[in-house]
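User: Could you check the structure of this?
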Amino acid sequence: MSSEYIGDVIERFMRRVTREIREMIERFEEELRGPLCDPSTQCLEPLTEIFETPDEVVIRFDLPYVRDKDSIQVSVSEDTVTLYARLEGVSIRTGHIVYRGVKFFAYRKSVRLPCEVDPERTRARFKDGVLELRLPKKVKKYYSIRVE
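Assistant: Sure, the predicted structure tokens are below.
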């Protein structure tokens, strides 16, 4: 009987790990599929770096041509960060006729977070064209249950 219980525990663990890996791969594929610019909305997608520490998720957005912090809007939920930042008009000129002379006026990006965070404790700093967000991880609470 106890070996069946251990088997059930291992099976649940493997299903959870498999699901989490699948979700990470889906997030990665979404990032690769999306365009870096959209001429129809005149928005660019900023280069983004995301990493975790034991206590927080850190996101850095590269925002060249953004004048100051007042040009930036950030909204944070427990699992998503959305950025909109106005920039000085930037023209992208390439040999490809679709993008010739298109002006971009903003950065826009939505990021799904790797874990739940506490949005109210998020800190943001804009310096030298880089916006850094520090999002404290949500603390999980465990409770002891009395067995009768």
